[in-house]
Amino acid sequence: MSPAPFRRAERLAGIEISEIVQLSERAAELRRAGQDVVALTTGEPDFPTPPHVVAAAHAAAEAGQTRYPPTAGTPELRAAIARQAGAEAAEVLVSTGAKQVLANAMLATLDPGDEVLIPAPFWTSYGDIVALAGGRPVRLPCPAADGFKLRPEALAAAITPRTRWLMLNSPSNPTGAVYGPGELAALAAVLADHPQVWVLSDEIYSHLAYVPAPSLRDAAPGLAERTLVVDGVSKAFAMTGWRLGWGIGPRALIGAMAAVQGQVTSGACSISQAAALAALTGPQELLADRRAAFRARRDRVCAALAAIPGISCVPPDGAFYAFPDVTGLILGGGFADDAALCRWLLDEVGLALVPGRAFGMPGHVRLSFAYAEREIDDALDRLATAAARLAARPFQASKEQVTT
């Protein structure tokens, strides 16, 4: 008897590996094949993990800290996170990366059909995580004219009896937008009339802001009993591969999230937790140095983009991404959309960027400046070359447009 065909679970309908990862892996494949490709696709700092952090991990391994850790995190790390956030250790859950914190929260709180409001543009995994947990992601468009930020009136209009969460990300991936204290307070005023709506505040880029970037816990203390702050060491301390993040929230929520985590991964890696403790309690001067380096790269990128016809860009106030509007290139080149433009850029000039559709806002691309300056300059030169080629050739509808 032949085996039955593979059956994919319905919960995976429409869910694939993120377009960011797909493009990064495609660029790597082309390089291995000998092609000259530069990719600004991933949000991974080119700086090394600080030496004292690596030394702490090595010391922990040598000392035998290789056993199962507590599910919610080691007491030392939870205490350090709590001190930094002005919280209690019992309000902290340490997880295998900030992404697991998001998944834990959604799995612990959503029932089928519950709605989660997600301002767009948004990080690509938000909607898929909500869908996997049985919820319904609701996109709230936030155009460049609004600074890519959610307005109170748009929030008020989107809330329904099924709304369970609002997801905020400040500084934002992909736009670098930062909510100021007044803007957060205005959103909190709307939520005051809707006590069933909780807020997930993703603050993973908080140490990489070029303007003041308050935590929601500080800007809206009245929401503290229904706020989950997500943070970690991946971006600020260049520790992406250590897979270590955390959530800070009410004890009941943290307990429910720990119950989910206990059945999925148990506790986060003990060695990574020792490394994260060293990052939080060790020298902090490098944060300012790296923030200054990213700010200089931001200025370099924005100046170059401003000089390219067909492109406009709102300068990011945090993180290490630019999210330029490339509608001019799309229309001028006769492309169907931003994804078609990105495919052409990869084929024509060996430049890999992420289309805006991956973040819920077509007509844009995301460009990461977490790379070395020589790679950034090379990428910007290729983008300028591509724009010049498009401007020089006669307009004609692309194959994508003809076939759709």
Automatic annotation (TrEMBL):
Its cofactor is pyridoxal 5'-phosphate. Homodimer. Belongs to the class-I pyridoxal-phosphate-dependent aminotransferase family. GO terms for molecular function: L-aspartate:2-oxoglutarate aminotransferase activity; pyridoxal phosphate binding. It holds the Pfam family Aminotran_1_2. One of its GO terms (biological process) is amino acid metabolic process. This is Aminotransferase. It comes from the Bacteria. Keywords: Aminotransferase, Pyridoxal phosphate, Transferase. Its EC number is 2.6.1.-. It comes from Oceanicola granulosus (strain ATCC BAA-861 / DSM 15982 / KCTC 12143 / HTCC2516). It catalyses: L-aspartate + 2-oxoglutarate = oxaloacetate + L-glutamate. It is an enzyme of class 2 (transferase). The keyword Transferase applies.
